Amino acid sequence: MTKLLEATCEAQVVKVGTATVSGAQILSEGVAASTGLLFLDGPKSKYVTSSASDVKALITSMVSILDKCLEILTGLDGASTSPGSQSAKIVELTTLKTQLNTSKDNLK
Amino acid sequence: MRIKCLHGYFIFDEMERGEISDFISLSGLSLVSKDDYYTFNSLAAAPEYSIAGQPYLGATATQTFAGKPWEIFRANGLVYDYFTDAVVPIASILERIDLSKADKFYLSNGLILPGSLYGSDRVKNYTGWFKGSRLNFYYSEVDFD
Fold first, then answer.
1. Same domain for A64 and A33
2. What are phi and psi of B95, to 5 degrees?
3. Tell me, what's the pLDDT at A74?
4. What's the confidence (pLDDT) of residue B90?
5. Domain containing A37: what range?
6. Which among B49, B54, B73 is the top mutation candidate for probing chain A, defined by the most A β-carbons within 10 Å of its own β-carbon?
7. How many domains does chain A divide into?
8. Beta-carbon contacts below 8 Å between A and B
9. Which one of A5, A16, A43 has the shortest CB-CB distance to B65?
10. pTM above 0.90, yes or no
11. Strand-pair partners of B106
12. Same structural domain, A22 and A61
């Protein structure tokens, strides 16, 4: 018999309401706070969350990076380009890359 | 009436009309209908899962488990004590029983409390029968741990 319970997970701790479910297998990374379902079948317990918001955040970050790349390339392509004129945008691009890297380690 | 005790959970099946009401009036114990059987009132709302460390019918579950109530009782080592109307750890049952063989059945003094000691063994499951206007029980099967 399989039971489905609404559950939450954060820092790899699964909870049903306020009760911690120790030993539950987390089928995602389980780091960032998430809501999902706990599958119980006999002594087995597995937690599943939707990765849709992770994917959405990832795509949003990648679009931001591409936007920044476009800005830089547009600037380089312009007639008024002078040395150092893109440095501020390159710093912003580096920041975006760092954010994307961070999100990789903070998946639900 | 057939009485199945499965790992401390009770299932009563009425074989002849009136047996449930006879049992209730003679024993003073409350039975209610659940699914296609009767059980004790305190067991009727038994959840079909337990979470270790959380309450389960007034006791504390030791295992995270999903299944039928009797499977959860087995997993958590719980039994229903109808004397105290409480679900308790099987190890807390100190009752001792005597069983005698009569023809194809076992006889015991009253309804066997699950987890009761018989020698050094504990009663795990049984199938008992109640019939008639007196509170007599006989048992066609008794299993021990």
1. no
2. -60, 140
3. 84
4. 97
5. 2-49
6. B49
7. 2
8. 38
9. A43
10. no
11. B101, B139
12. no
**Inter-residue contact B26 to B135 (CB < 8 Å):** yes
| B62 and A CB contact within 8 Å | no
Which residue do the tokens 């007196």 mark?
A: B134
Angle, CA B124 vertex, CA B5 and CA A40 arms, to 5°: 80
Domain boundaries, chain B: 2-144
- Per the structure block, which two tokens stand in for B106? 């076992």
CA dist., res. B79 & res. B69, Å (int) = 11
Statement to judge: residues A44 and A58 lie in one domain: no
Q: Kindly determine whether residue A43 and residue B63, on different chains, have CB atoms separated by under 8 Å.
A: yes
Looking at the fold, whether A38 and A67 belong to one and the same domain comes out as: no
* Positions in chain B short of pLDDT 50: none
Dmax over CA atoms of chain B, in Å, equals 45
Do A66 and A28 reside in the same domain of the chain? no
Distance CA B20, CA A30 (A): 51
User: pLDDT by residue (tens digit) across A28-85?
Assistant: 999 999 999 999 999 999 999 988 888 888 888 888 888 888 888 888 877 666 777 7
| SS3 state at B2 | strand
Mutation choice for B interface testing from A6, A8, A21 by most B CBs within 10 A:
A21
CA B135 to CA B90: how far, in whole Å?
25
Residue A26 lies in a domain: yes
- Whether the complex's predicted ipTM surpasses the cut of 0.90: no
